[in-house]
C-alpha cells in the first residue's frame, strides 16, 4: 500500500518543482530595484531519524532509524511523541534529544491492556497528549484509539477492533474504520479523525462517543451543520483553546473548521489539488492535507502531504508557506522554507510556537524553531562573465563567482545572475538562476554588450541578498554552427509546472511530450499534462499558445485551434509538419484517440479517429476508431501515416481514406517482407524520408523497420534483443526502447532510445552505420553548452529535424526541449598548403597540409601535373596526406597542383610543386675484369639512370652480401677496387647510385688479385765449361703459380730457364766473369730480379792419377793438365777433403813443370776426396788466375 501510494503521489502534476541540480531557469524581466518586505523565516533542524527506514534504537534520537513516521505530538515539558507507523510503535523523544520506545512492540497486532511497551499496535498514524501527560494513539489498522498514562499503562478508549461505522454511546463499543488522527482538548475530550468512515468523533473523559462532523458519505463538504456535511478521508484533527475543531480533509484537499456549536465551514483550500498560494486560505489550493495543528494564538498549521509543504493559516484566514520548497526530498538544516520535505503527514506545535513535522517517507521528524530567524545571505564575490554557447535561441553567457562569506544562517540554495544590455537598454534584462557557480544565462542578443550582477538566496526569490557586479562587460556571440553541443531551446530543466507563454527558457513545460519543426524553423511543443496544449516557439525565443483551451477534453470538430478542446497526451508523441506548414498531432489517450491537423492560420480539424478507442477499420479515416495513436508522419503526397496502439501503422490519404499500411493488429515479432503481413509490437515514433520510405519505431520489438512505398518491410536498426546500443552497423546494434524518430534532409535517421540503461539519440546514416549523436547513456539533467554526447539526455522520447538539419528533442521527465545545431551548409574546401613532393618510380608522393574542409568532410582530392591545365580525380579516393600520383614518366619534370573535394564541390587550388619522377638505376654490364696487385679493375657499361643522374657506384666483393661505396665518387669506368688480398678469389658486383637510391646489382664476376713474383734468393752459382749452374730459393709467387724461371747475363735479355732450381746458364766464354740474375714468371709477368751473382766459366779441370803411398799418412797424386790456349801455367794445388765433404784436411803444391805431389798428414786406411786446381796467366795479363778445378777423385791411404 505504501509503494503504490507513494508512486501515485510522485506522478501527480500541478506543483511547480524547483531545479534540483546545477541548471538554470530563466525569466525575461529585470529584478526590482528594491525588495518588498518578506515574512520571517525560521530555522529547521532534525529532531529524530537518520533518513533511512529501520527499527528504532534507544539513545540519541537523530541516530535512531524510524519507519514512516506519520503522527507527532508534544507535551508541556517538551517531550515529543512519534506515531512510527511501519514500526508499529510510538516513540518518545525528550527535550534533551533522547529517544525511547513508549508503546508497541516489534510486530503489528491487536493491543492488550497493561504495559504499553508490551502491547502490540498496528500501523499507528496519529498521536496526541493531554495536559496530564496521557498519550492518545490512533491505532489505524486495529480500528481503535488507545490511551497510555505517564506511567506507561495502556488502555483502550475507543473502538472494538473491528472496522465499521461508529455508533454513539460507549466509545469502546463503537466501531471505527482506520482512525488516522487524534486530538485532545483542555477538558480531556478526545477527537478522532475516522478516515474510512469519513467522520470526526468525540470521546468524553467518561468514555462516551459522539459524532461531531461528517455524514458518513464521501464527498465535498458543505457549510452548515457539521454532521450533515460530507467529508472525504479525514486524516488529521486539531482543537483550539476555544473548542473549535480543525479537520485535515485529505481527499477533499481542504481543511474545515467546526465550531463548538457544531457549525462547519471551509477554513483552507479550494477543493482542487495543487500548489498553495499565499493569501486568503480559502483561495489557495492544497494537495492531500494529512495533518493539522493549532497554536495558542489560533494559528493553524497544515501538513500538506503532496505539496509537499507545511502551511500556516492565521486566525484571520491568511495562508503562508511555513516549511518546504514544494520539491519532495529529505529535510535539511537551514531555513524551513528552503528545506525539502517528504510526505509531511503529521504536524504539532508546542507552547513556544515551535512546530514539529513528521516526514513519512523521509523517515524523519523535523523541528522548526521560532525563537530565531534566518537572514538573507551576503553578496557573492569575484564574479567573472564569459560568452558561451548554451541556448539555441540567441546568445548566452556564463558567470562564475565565489560564494558569499555569510549564508544568513541557512545554506545558499540559489544564485541569480542578471544581464543588462548596455548596447540597447530598451531590450530590458535577462535573469538566470543556478545552484552553484558558474550560472549560464541565455536569451541574450548576439552582438550586444552586457554587464552582469549576481546575488544569492537561502530561500525563495524574496530572499536574495546584495548583488555584486562582474568586473567587465562582454559582447555576446552566437552558438557555433555544427559544433556538436547540446543547446537548450525551451523549458526550465528539472521542473514540471504549468507552461506559460513568454520567454521559452523561463517557463516549465509540464512534461513536454512532442516536438515538431516547420520548414520556416517554427518549433511546436506538445505539453503532456495539466496546463498543457500545443505551444509555438518563434525565432525570437518567445513561446505562445498555438492550440488547446486547457480543458483536457476531446475536440468536437473543426474550429479555431486556440479554443479547441485538446486532452493531455500523458505520454510522448511524434508530431509532424507537412510541406504546407500544417501541424499533425496524435492524441493517444484511450478517452480521446484521434489525430488532428492545425493549419498555419490556426484552424483545427480532425484527420482520423472518432474519439472512441477501438481497432481501426479501413475506409473514411474520421469514421474509423483508433486505439491510441502515438506518432504521425507525412509524405510528399500528403499521405499521413499513423502509429496506433493496435499494433498497426495506418495510412490516411489526402482524400481522407484510411488503409492498413503495416502490422496485422496482433502484437508479435516483426518479419521482413510484406509490411501488412508483419506483426508489430508497440509502434510509436514514425518518420518519412524524401523518397517516401517510412520508418517505424517498433518499441517492444526493439527495432526500427523501414517500409518502402511498395510496402516491403525490412529491418533498419536493432537486433530484436533489448539492450544498450553500440556504434557500427545499425542492424547489429541493440536498442532498448526506440520511441522518437526523425530524419534530416540528408537522409540520416535519428532514433530516440528511451531506455534507462542507454538514454541516447543515435544517428543512422543512409549507409546503415549507427553512431551516437546525443546523450552519454545515463540519466540525469543535461549540461547544456557541452558536447551533446558527453552529457545525459534523459527520456529523448520525441525528435524533430529542421530543414537545415538541426535536431530537436524533448527530455520528457526533465521538462525541456533541447537541440543539436547542424553544421552550416558546406562550402568547397580551402586550398591545401605546404606541398612537398617526393619523386618515385614513374610516380610522385605529395605530402600536404589540408585546408579547411568547408564544413563537410573531404571525400577525395584531384591533382594536375601540368600546372592546373588538366585535372585527374584520385582513384581510389584518398583523403589524407601524402597522396601518390602514378603513371608518370621517369626523368620528366611535372608541375603538380592539388585541390580537395567535398559535397560542395572542388576546392581551391594549391600552389604548384615541381617533381621529376625517378627510380634507381638499372644494373651495369661488366665488360672487363682486370686483377691487380691487391686490387681489381672493373670495366663496365652503365645501365639506364632511372630518370636521375648517376652520382656514384657501389661494389660488393662477397656476391652482394655487403656493399661498399666508391670512396671518391665517380661515374666513369673502370672502377678500381683496392685493399684485396692477392691469391683470394672475389665475386664482384656493381650497382649505380642516383637520387632515388641504390640501383640493381650487376651479375657477379670472379676476380683473383695478383702481382709478379718476388725475387728468388740465389744460394749458389757453379761455373762450368762455358756455362754456369745457378741454384736459388724462389720468392713469393705473387698470388698465382710461377710458370717458369728466367735468367739474364748482365743487362741482357731474360732467357727462359726451366721451372725449378738450379738453372743452367750456357753459351758463356770460359775465363770470362759474368753477372747473372734470376727471376720468376707468373701470369702477371716477370717478377723481381734476384741479386746479381758473378761467375767465371772455365774449361774442364786436370786429370788426376792416384798413386798409393808406400808409407803411412800420405799419398802421391799424379795428374795431367791441358792448359787454356795462350795461357801460361803457373802451378797447381792438390787438396785432400774429408770424404763426401768440403772439409780440407791437407794439401800440396807443385810448380808448372811438375805433374805430381805428395799430400801428407793423412790417416792410413782412410778415404779422401782429392781435387787439383791449376793457376795460370791469361794472354796479355800478368795476373795469376785460378783455373777450373778438377773433378773429384777418391783415394784410400794405404796402411
From TrEMBL:
Database matches in PROSITE patterns: FN3, NHL
Bias (Low complexity) ranges: 48-64
InterPro entries documented for this protein: 6-blade_b-propeller_TolB-like, FN3_dom, FN3_sf, Ig-like_fold, LDLR_classB_rpt, NHL_repeat, TEN_NHL
Location of region: Disordered: 47-71
Keyword flag Repeat: yes
Pfam families for the chain: fn3, NHL, TEN_NHL
Domain Fibronectin type-III residue range list: 379-480, 828-919, 920-1015
Ranges that cross the membrane: none
Entry coiled-coil feature ranges: none
Sorted UniProt keywords: Repeat
Gene3D superfamilies named among the record's database cross-references: 2.40.10.500, Immunoglobulins (2.60.40.10), TolB, C-terminal domain (2.120.10.30)
Name the UniProt record assigns to this protein: Unannotated protein
Keyword Acetylation (UniProt): no
Amino acid at each position: 500500500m505504501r509503494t503504490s501510494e507513494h508512486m501515485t503521489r510522485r506522478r501527480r502534476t500541478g506543483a511547480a518543482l524547483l531545479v534540483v541540480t546545477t541548471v538554470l531557469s530563466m525569466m525575461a524581466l529585470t529584478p526590482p530595484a528594491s525588495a518588498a518586505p518578506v515574512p520571517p523565516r525560521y530555522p529547521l533542524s532534525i529532531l529524530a531519524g537518520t533518513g533511512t527506514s529501520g527499527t528504532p534504537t534507544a539513545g540519541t534520537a537523530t541516530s535512531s532509524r524510524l519507519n514512516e513516521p506519520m503522527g507527532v505530538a508534544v507535551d508541556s515539558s517538551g517531550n515529543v511523541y512519534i506515531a512510527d507507523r511501519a514500526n508499529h510503535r510510538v516513540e518518545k523523544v525528550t527535550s534533551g534529544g533522547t529517544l525511547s520506545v513508549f508503546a508497541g512492540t516489534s510486530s503489528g497486532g491487536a493491543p492488550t491492556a497493561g504495559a504499553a511497551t508490551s502491547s502490540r499496535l498496528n500501523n499507528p498514524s496519529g498521536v496526541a497528549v493531554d495536559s496530564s501527560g496521557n498519550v492518545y494513539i490512533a491505532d489505524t489498522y486495529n480500528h481503535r484509539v488507545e490511551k497510555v498514562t505517564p506511567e506507561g499503562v495502556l488502555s483502550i478508549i475507543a473502538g472494538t477492533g473491528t472496522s465499521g461505522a461508529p455508533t454513539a454511546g460507549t466509545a469502546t463499543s463503537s466501531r471505527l474504520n482506520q482512525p488516522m488522527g487524534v486530538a485532545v482538548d483542555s477538558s480531556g475530550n478526545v477527537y478522532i479523525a475516522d478516515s474510512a468512515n469519513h467522520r470526526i468523533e468525540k470521546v468524553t473523559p467518561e468514555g462516551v462517543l459522539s459524532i461531531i462532523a461528517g455524514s458518513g458519505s464521501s464527498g465535498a463538504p458543505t457549510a452548515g451543520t457539521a454532521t450533515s456535511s460530507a467529508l472525504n478521508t479525514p486524516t488529521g484533527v486539531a482543537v483550539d483553546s476555544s473548542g473549535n475543531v480543525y479537520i485535515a480533509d485529505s481527499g477533499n484537499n481542504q481543511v474545515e473548521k467546526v465550531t463548538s456549536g457544531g457549525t462547519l465551514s471551509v477554513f483552507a483550500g479550494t477543493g482542487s489539488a495543487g500548489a498553495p498560494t499565499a493569501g486568503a486560505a480559502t483561495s489557495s489550493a492544497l494537495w492531500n492535507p494529512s495533518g493539522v495543528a493549532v497554536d495558542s494564538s489560533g494559528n493553524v498549521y497544515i501538513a500538506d502531504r503532496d505539496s509537499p509543504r507545511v502551511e500556516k493559516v492565521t486566525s484571520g484566514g491568511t495562508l503562508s508557506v511555513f516549511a518546504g520548497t514544494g520539491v519532495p526530498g529529505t529535510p535539511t538544516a537551514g531555513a524551513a522554507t528552503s528545506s525539502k520535505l517528504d510526505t509531511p503527514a503529521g504536524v504539532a506545535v508546542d507552547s513556544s510556537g515551535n512546530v514539529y513535522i513528521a516526514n513519512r517517507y523521509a523517515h524523519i521528524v523535523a523541528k522548526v524553531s521560532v525563537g530565531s530567524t534566518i537572514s538573507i545571505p551576503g553578496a557573492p564575490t569575484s564574479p567573472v562573465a564569459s560568452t558561451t554557447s548554451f541556448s539555441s535561441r540567441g546568445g548566452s553567457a556564463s558567470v562564475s563567482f565565489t560564494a558569499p562569506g555569510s549564508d544568513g544562517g541557512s545554506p545558499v540554495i540559489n544564485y541569480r545572475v542578471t544581464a543588462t544590455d548596455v548596447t540597447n537598454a530598451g531590450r530590458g534584462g535577462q535573469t538566470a538562476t543556478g545552484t552553484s557557480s558558474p550560472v549560464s544565462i541565455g536569451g541574450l542578443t548576439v552582438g550586444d554588450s552586457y554587464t552582469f550582477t549576481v546575488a544569492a538566496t537561502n530561500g525563495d526569490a524574496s530572499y536574495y541578498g546584495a548583488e555584486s557586479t562582474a568586473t567587465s562587460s562582454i559582447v555576446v556571440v552566437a552558438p557555433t554552427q555544427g559544433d556538436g553541443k547540446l543547446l537548450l531551446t525551451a523549458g526550465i530543466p528539472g521542473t514540471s509546472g504549468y507552461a506559460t507563454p513568454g520567454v521559452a527558457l523561463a517557463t516549465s513545460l509540464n512534461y513536454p511530450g512532442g516536438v515538431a519543426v516547420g520548414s520556416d524553423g517554427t518549433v511546436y511543443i506538445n505539453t503532456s499534462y495539466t496546463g498543457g496544449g500545443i505551444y509555438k516557439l518563434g525565432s525570437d525565443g518567445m513561446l505562445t499558445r498555438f492550440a488547446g483551451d486547457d480543458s483536457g477534453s476531446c475536440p468536437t470538430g473543426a474550429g479555431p485551434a486556440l479554443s479547441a478542446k485538446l486532452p493531455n497526451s500523458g505520454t510522448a508523441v511524434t508530431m509532424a509538419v507537412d510541406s504546407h506548414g500544417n501541424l499533425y498531432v496524435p492524441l493517444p489517450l484511450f478517452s480521446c484517440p484521434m489525430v488532428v491537423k492545425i493549419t498555419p492560420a490556426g484552424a483545427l480539424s480532425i484527420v482520423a479517429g472518432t474519439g472512441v478507442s477501438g481497432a481501426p477499420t479501413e475506409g473514411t479515416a474520421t469514421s474509423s476508431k483508433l486505439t491510441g495513436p502515438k506518432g504521425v508522419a507525412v509524405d510528399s503526397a500528403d499521405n499521413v501515416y499513423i502509429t496506433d496502439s493496435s499494433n498497426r501503422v495506418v495510412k490516411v490519404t489526402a482524400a481522407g481514406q484510411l488503409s492498413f499500411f503495416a502490422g496485422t493488429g496482433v502484437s508479435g515479432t516483426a518479419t521482413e517482407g510484406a509490411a501488412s503481413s508483419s506483426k508489430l509490437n508497440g509502434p510509436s515514433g514514425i518518420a518519412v524520408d524524401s523518397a517516401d520510405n517510412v520508418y517505424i519505431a517498433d518499441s517492444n520489438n526493439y527495432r526500427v523497420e523501414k517500409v518502402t512505398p511498395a510496402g516491403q518491410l525490412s529491418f533498419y536498426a536493432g537486433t530484436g534483443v533489448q539492450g544498450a546500443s553500440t556504434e557500427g552497423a545499425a542492424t547489429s546494434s541493440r536498442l532498448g526502447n526506440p520511441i522518437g524518430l526523425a530524419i534530416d534532409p540528408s537522409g540520416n535517421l535519428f532514433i530516440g532510445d528511451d531506455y534507462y540503461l542507454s538514454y541516447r539519440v543515435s544517428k543512422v546514416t543512409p549507409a546503415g552505420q549507427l553512431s551516437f549523436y546525443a546523450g552519454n547513456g545515463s540519466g540525469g539533467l543535461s549540461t547544456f553548452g557541452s558536447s551533446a554526447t558527453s552529457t545525459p539526455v534523459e527520456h529523448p522520447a520525441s525528435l524533430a529535424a529542421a530543414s537545415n538539419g538541426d535536431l530537436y528533442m524533448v527530455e520528457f521527465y526533465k521538462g525541456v526541449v533541447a537541440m543539436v545545431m547542424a553544421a552550416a551548409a558546406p562550402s568547397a574546401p580551402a586550398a591545401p598548403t605546404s606541398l612537398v613532393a617526393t619523386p618515385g618510380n614513374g610516380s610522385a608522393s605529395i605530402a600536404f597540409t589540408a585546408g579547411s574542409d568547408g564544413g563537410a568532410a573531404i571525400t577525395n582530392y584531384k591533382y594536375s601535373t601540368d600546372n592546373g591545365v588538366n585535372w585527374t580525380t584520385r582513384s581510389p579516393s584518398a583523403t589524407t596526406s601524402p597522396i601518390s600520383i602514378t603513371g608518370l614518366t621517369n626523368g620528366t619534370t611535372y608541375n603538380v597542383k592539388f585541390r580537395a573535394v567535398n559535397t560542395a564541390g572542388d576546392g581551391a587550388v594549391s600552389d604548384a610543386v615541381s617533381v621529376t619522377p625517378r627510380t634507381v638505376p638499372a644494373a651495369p654490364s661488366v665488360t672487363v675484369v682486370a686483377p691487380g696487385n691487391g686490387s681489381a679493375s672493373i670495366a663496365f657499361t652503365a645501365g639506364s639512370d632511372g630518370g636521375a643522374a648517376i652520382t656514384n657506384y657501389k661494389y660488393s666483393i662477397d656476391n652482394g652480401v655487403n656493399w661498399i661505396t666508391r670512396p671518391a665518387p665517380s661515374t666513369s669506368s673502370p672502377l678500381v677496387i683496392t685493399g684485396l688480398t692477392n691469391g683470394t678469389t672475389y665475386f664482384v658486383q656493381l650497382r649505380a647510385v642516383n637520387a632515388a637510391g641504390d640501383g640493381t646489382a650487376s651479375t657477379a664476376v670472379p676476380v683473383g688479385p695478383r702481382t709478379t713474383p718476388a725475387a728468388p734468393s740465389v744460394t749458389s752459382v757453379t761455373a762450368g765449361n762455358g756455362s754456369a749452374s745457378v741454384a736459388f730459393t724462389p720468392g713469393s709467387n705473387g698470388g698465382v703459380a710461377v710458370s717458369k724461371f728466367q735468367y739474364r747475363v748482365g743487362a741482357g735479355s731474360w732467357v727462359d730457364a726451366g721451372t725449378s732450381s738450379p738453372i743452367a746458364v750456357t753459351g758463356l766464354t770460359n775465363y770470362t766473369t759474368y753477372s747473372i740474375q734470376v727471376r720468376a714468371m707468373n701470369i702477371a709477368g716477370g717478377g723481381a730480379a734476384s741479386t746479381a751473382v758473378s761467375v767465371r766459366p772455365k774449361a774442364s779441370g786436370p786429370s788426376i792419377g792416384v798413386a798409393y803411398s808406400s808409407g803411412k799418412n800420405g799419398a802421391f797424386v799424379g795428374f795431367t793438365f791441358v792448359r787454356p790456349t795462350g795461357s801460361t801455367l803457373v802451378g797447381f794445388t792438390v787438396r785432400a777433403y774429408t770424404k763426401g765433404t768440403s772439409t780440407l784436411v791437407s794439401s800440396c803444391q807443385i810448380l808448372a813443370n811438375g805433374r805430381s805431389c805428395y799430400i801428407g798428414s793423412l790417416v792410413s786406411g782412410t778415404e779422401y776426396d782429392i781435387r787439383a786446381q791449376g793457376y795460370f796467366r791469361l794472354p796479355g795479363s800478368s795476373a795469376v788466375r785460378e783455373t777450373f778445378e778438377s773433378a773429384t777423385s777418391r783415394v784410400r791411404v794405404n796402411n
